[in-house]
Amino acid sequence: MKKVQGIDITAMHILEQVRDMMEEGGYLLFSSIPVRIPSGLEMQKYFEEIGIAKGHANVKIFGELDDAIEWVEDRLIEEDELSKEEQNAIGLQEFELFKSKKEETLSALEERMQRLCVKAGEKIFAAGDTGDELFLIRKGEVRIVLPISEAQQYHISTFGQGNFFGEMAFLDGAVRSADAVAQSDTESSSDF
Fold first, then answer.
1. Which of 39, 100, 106, 118 yields a CA-CA distance of 20 to 30 A from 29?
2. What's the fold here for domain 92-190?
3. What pTM value is reported for the model?
4. Considering all CA atoms of the chain, what is the largest pairwise distance in Å, rounded to the nearest integer?
């Protein structure tokens, strides 16, 4: 809603109709609702007065678009049919990166790699750490977050089974600029 320059009762009525349609299993998400629009209307107050969200579990209001996107990502992860505890670790040949490689090549690579098992909520690495590893996710999920302060962080991305991560430090050898945190119990391989 950041670029909304005007809204009237007809627009609000349409939003109410969309909200009501979403009660069948969908959500109506708003982000960046301006405090005041050029017409002078206090839009946040107008939303409260009309009651577009109040008392409706399927309507969510977020301060920023990134917060709304993260909320959606979290819902998709929760709805994943395969429980992370039931998930089996995959072999190197199942990574898209290695699909066309010979078995003996993958075996030699496997011998040089270390397996890392991390419990949900634990850090794999932190901003400021040194490291040049690339991590292959065999099982689980990893969130990459940028620490802003002691209490705040910015969610950059979430990677799941079959993906890899390592940040720019993998390429340039500089210190890590973000944290990698296990979203679920995770098994990865690293140390090429």
1. 39
2. Jelly Rolls (2.60.120)
3. 0.62
4. 70
